[in-house]
User: Fold these one by one.
Assistant:
Number 1:
Amino acid sequence: PEERKLSGLWRNELDSLMEISAVRDNGDFQGKYLTRVTLAGGCARASPLRGAQQQPGEGGWPTFAFTVRWDKFSNATTAFAGQCFVDTGGKETLTTMWLLREAVGSLEEDWKATRVGRNVFTRKRIRKG
Ligand code: B9F
């Protein structure tokens, strides 16, 4: 496939937005993540994300991973891993799975510290006119 870059604005089925900027030649990238859902209540705020995209090899869509630090909420972190697909119409889809790690106060509480899930992102078109 042609080269695919993750740069731009993406939205998932939870209505979260992520803006990926600055994809470097080695695949490293940074951006901002805005989640509509939170388990803390209050308003959503942009949290920093950092990741790495695999260089698109022969005959395959690239994989990637990134982390979001929920530093506006607490010291929880989510790690996402996924793959980028493009259909014949040019529609781009990122399928991911995530682990959300919450900080717990003791080793005895470690068992309940991790949530898991799946998110699918599509590119958010910028409206013109
Ligand atoms: O609700 C999370 C949180 C972290 C510390 C207090 C509240 C932050 C938002 C997580 C958003 C998740 C979903 N949004 C999305 O787009 S990340 C995976 C999902 N995909 C209490 C402690 C840890 C969680 C709740 Fe908290």
Number 2:
Amino acid sequence: MTARRVVVAGAIVADRRLLLAQRSYPPEVAGMWELPGGKAEPGESRESALRRELREELGVEVTVGAALKESVALRHDLVLVALRAHIEDGTPRAVEHRAVRWVDADELRRLHAEGSLVPADTAWVPELLADLAKR
Ligand code: DCP
């Protein structure tokens, strides 16, 4: 049996806005927006992997909270999960991405409607909209 690798992505909400990052590769998804993250290394916890990925990709230090309910099978051996995260230090900048932006609920709905979200990440839209409506 092949071990299942996990890709962890960060759902960062602050001031009723969600942080999205624009992919620069591969060509199929370049220009589309995603929750930033990446593959956990073998033996690395999801939380540590997310902290490392967001440090590398955005230059921020985060604390990691609860997972979103939906997970997405990217391939038979690769599953995508999202963890809520809170920025403790730093301002997100696009190190590996084309751009980063904060979107409100309407902007998230619009990006979703126009097909500008990375396909796998669309599974999280309802939960993200619920988070954006809180407080
Ligand atoms: N992915 C996704 N949605 C996200 C984050 C990632 O669908 N919010 C997918 C895209 C890739 C896989 O997960 O198929 C791995 O993502 P990355 O390429 O961003 O991760 P790594 O940089 O860790 O992988 P690699 O080193 O293989 O490039």
